[in-house]
Specification:
It is a single chain. This protein has 21 helices and ten strands. With 585 residues, it is an alpha/beta fold. The protein has a six-stranded mixed β-sheet, with helices on both faces. The protein has a four-stranded antiparallel β-sheet with strand order 2-1-4-5, covered by helices on one side. The protein is elongated. The two termini are 57 Å apart.
Length: 585
């Protein structure tokens, strides 16, 4: 279902609050319009010979009216701005919830800078719509409307019409600039996204940049993006300034007409001096709201463009989601059956997996080995339902994986991915990464099994040591093991290690797997690895090549067979032996 325009929806949901804010602001506007009348009376009295008491009385009225107008204006402002903050909070929450529901594939296609730009800049613009957009629209509408009525009703209808003549030009101008400002705003947002992505990539890849002496080319790319950002902003600024300047010029023409023709009317005696003063004070009061109208139109246009962009994200249907009638299954035990699984990535002709059959009994271990790109990660991703497998091709404990609620499925799997993402919080919290949290005892036990306990207790803060963004203060191997501890603490029915031990040497990998034996007991374990020595104890080993299983069996039977597995194993052990004798292992 398509979502409604975000601001409109917020307006409808908070109708009464907006009305109340508008009433407060309108009272302030009406009070402000009393001041020209007071000044008009003052001018008339001056001509007739004013007394000190009259001066004092008018001054007092101006102070009282000014004070009340300011009181209602600031109260209305506080009220309406609070609504705008609510709008900002609401959209940010919806956006984050939507992002959480989208598959990792979605994020693979997005630049981080663009996502950041949506989360920060776009939402700021929506807040501006709620703040200045609403506030200035109400103020401009009431002030302009009532001021014009007062000018026509109390001073001179002909002069009012004459002075207002240039204003339709402002409407035309707003119409003419509408598309241009909208288009340029989009370009500015894109330029900001590009710049943010560039900085993010530079920071994330700083070691590669330095290692390949790419500082200068990277600086050139940054300069180009920075220049583009400047240019797009200047163009937008030009449109805005041009628009504002012409708006002011139009208002200036109104002034000219008022002074010339108003002056003539005073000379002819058609209106009094007081009326002339009041008329020009009204006109002065019109200048700010009319000028603001330009800004408001600009904000509303930018808001419209952002609204469309944000709704485009909010309307994205997650490719992987629970079916409507999905029900929790009884306890997950971890018996996995894969039946004739063939899988194509969206838009790909070549099958990433081709007719895969597997039977992994509950509590047993399966190792998936094969060359780069042979389909190991794809198989694991489908088991976690990061993509949808064809119906009936993956069955866990007798249930088609498509009929198991995603939450239950993923809670039953302890997944250790290739990339070890750690969050910028303490090591303990990285391990206890679960809504309910875990006690210290659990955290320490998981760290021990993952062979990282000794490293952690050496840090000054032990488990309370804070990690920088992406866990930069830990070595690759330590990060991997913290990530393993995070999977183990869940005590899941199924453990999946997707080439997760590649950052440690062969000996450490074996030691970790040896240490994990206790944790693996009673759990179905799936390990993908390039290093065959590490997985040789698995109950079942499958060798993949170009999306197909080309060999299967246990280590001994595969070695006897003398195929791809045996030759790779022999090559690898020979290499490791050489490295060992050279002191590398
Ligand atoms: N998101 C994707 N979209 C399209 N094709 C993909 C995607 N991910 C992987 N592939 C392709 O699917 C095939 C299998 O990839 P997969 O990542 O499963 O291999 P792998 O055996 O895990 O490789 P590695 O050992 O390098 O991790 C490859 O040809 C790869 O290019």
């Amino acid at each position: 279902m398509k979502s409604k325009p975000l601001f409109k929806e917020h307006l409808m949901n908070h109708k009464m609050q907006y009305v109340f804010g508008a009433v407060l602001l309108s009272i302030s506007c009406l009070l402000q319009l009393v001041i020209p009348q007071l000044l008009g009376s003052f001018a008339d009295l001056v001509q007739e010979g004013i007394t000190a008491g009259q001066i004092l009385s008018i001054a007092l009225w101006i102070v009282v009216v000014g004070f009340l107008a300011a009181f209602f204006r600031s109260t209305g402002r506080i009220y309406l701005f609070r609504l705008a903050r609510l709008l900002e909070k609401h959209i940010r929450k919806r956006l984050f919830m939507k992002w959480e529901s989208l598959p990792s594939e979605y994020f693979g296609k997005q630049r981080i800078g663009d996502l950041m730009s949506h989360a920060v800049n776009d939402i700021n613009i929506m807040r501006e719509v709620g703040m200045m957009g609403v506030f200035s629209t109400i103020e401009a509408t009431v002030l302009i409307g009532v001021a014009i009525a007062a000018m026509a009703g109390t001073v001179h209808i002909g002069l009012t019409l004459l002075v207002l003549l240039p204003l339709p030009a402002l409407t035309y101008l707003a119409y003419r600039f509408r598309g241009e400002i909208e288009q340029r705003t989009t370009l500015v947002q894109e330029a900001v996204g590009q710049l943010t992505s560039r900085v993010q990539e530079f920071v994330a890849g700083i070691r590669v940049v330095k290692g390949y002496v790419q500082e200068q080319p990277e600086m050139n790319k940054f300069k180009e993006d920075n220049r583009n950002n400047l240019e797009t902003n200047c163009k937008l600024n030009k449109s805005n300034s041009f628009f504002t300047a012409i708006s002011s010029a139009i208002v200036g023409v109104s002034y000219l007409l008022s002074v010339v023709f108003g002056g003539l009317l005073v000379m002819r005696g058609s209106i009094g001096m007081g009326d002339f003063v009041a008329f020009n004070t009204y006109l002065t009061m019109l200048v700010a709201p009319v000028e603001n109208l330009g800004k408001v139109i600009n904000i509303l246009q930018r808001g419209k463009a952002v609204d469309v962009r944000l709704r485009h994200i909010l309307d994205t249907e997650p490719a992987v989601a629970d079916a409507k009638d999905v029900h929790s299954v009884e306890e997950m035990r971890g018996a996995i059956n894969v039946k004739g699984l063939t899988f194509h990535y969206p838009g790909q002709k070549r099958a990433a997996l081709d007719n895969i059959h597997l039977n992994v009994p509950e509590g047993s271990s399966l190792a998936i080995v094969g060359k780069v790109g042979s389909g190991k990660t794809t198989l694991v991703n489908l088991l976690l339902r990061l993509y949808n497998p064809p119906r009936g091709t993956i069955v866990i404990d007798g249930h088609d994986i498509m009929d198991i609620p995603l939450r239950q499925l993923r809670e039953s799997v302890g997944f250790v991915p290739q990339e070890h993402m750690l969050f910028s919080t303490t090591i303990g919290k990285n391990i206890a990464f679960h809504p309910g949290g875990y006690g210290q005892e659990h955290i320490q036990e998981a760290a021990k099994v993952a062979q990282v306990y000794d490293n952690i207790v050496e840090f000054p803060g032990k488990f309370d040591t804070s990690l920088g963004e992406r866990g930069v203060s830990l070595s690759g191997g330590q990060r991997q093991r913290v990530s393993i501890a995070r999977a183990l603490i869940k005590e899941p029915a199924i453990l999946v290690f997707d080439d997760s031990l590649s950052a440690v040497d062969a000996e450490t990998e074996e030691r970790i797997l040896e240490g994990l034996k206790k944790a693996m007991k009673g759990r179905t374990t799936i390990i993908t690895s390039h290093r065959l020595s590490a997985i040789r104890h698995a109950d079942q080993i499958v060798v993949m090549d170009q999306g197909r299983i080309v060999e299967r069996g246990d280590h001994a039977s595969l070695m006897r067979r003398g195929g791809l597995y045996a030759s790779t194993y022999n090559k690898q052990t020979m290499k490791t032996g050489m490295e060992g004798s050279l002191g590398y292992s």
